[in-house]
Amino acid sequence: MVGVPRRGRLVVHGARRAGVAKMKSAATIWVLASLIGRCVHGAEVVPWERVGRIAQLLCMTAAHESGLVHRRQIGFDVDSEKGAFSLWQVEKASICDSLKWLGTHALVRMNLMKGLEVASTESASALGGAGYWSAEGEGRGMPRLLRLLQEPEGDVLGCALARLHYIRFPSPIPEGLEAMARMAKEQYNTGEGKATAEKYLSAYRRLFGWMDRRD
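The structure assignment produced for this chain is given below.
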């Protein structure tokens, strides 16, 4: 029997470790997306079946926007407020719109802050300090928030901001990955973006497909 060359074994083992690392990263993002799906609501608690759809949409968005790798849009300085931030690649204009929306939905804001405090007190503090829902403190904490979105500790905040982007649209999250991919293209990337629904779907299946097959 011919043995596997030592270098070959290292390559195989390295690829296997990289695959396991990607699965762990995807699993972590799934947990965060499920948490955000559960805690962002008004008077009615989100049923678990709907939480699953929200998590799929948020994971699909992150998979396409950053590949679960980039927390800052390539080509932009870390201290600049231009470009996109977090694994969900949210832009400052969208963040401001979401925070202003929160200013008119006090119950949603309260429930979100409770969820963030459980997952990350730093994220809860940064979001609370952004101040875009109060005329007196508008924008005072934006630099801190944008810096946090570039760190792993800010992933739950980035996920929350992506959820708030979607929640501002009246259409419910559909069933089925193909329909979700079309929603992501239309609502997150917009018609002017270069992405396609097929690319969103492909990115999700590449990074999260193993979760759909785990049973």
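Interim note for the steering committee: Residues 21-212 form one domain. The longest strand covers residues 84-85.
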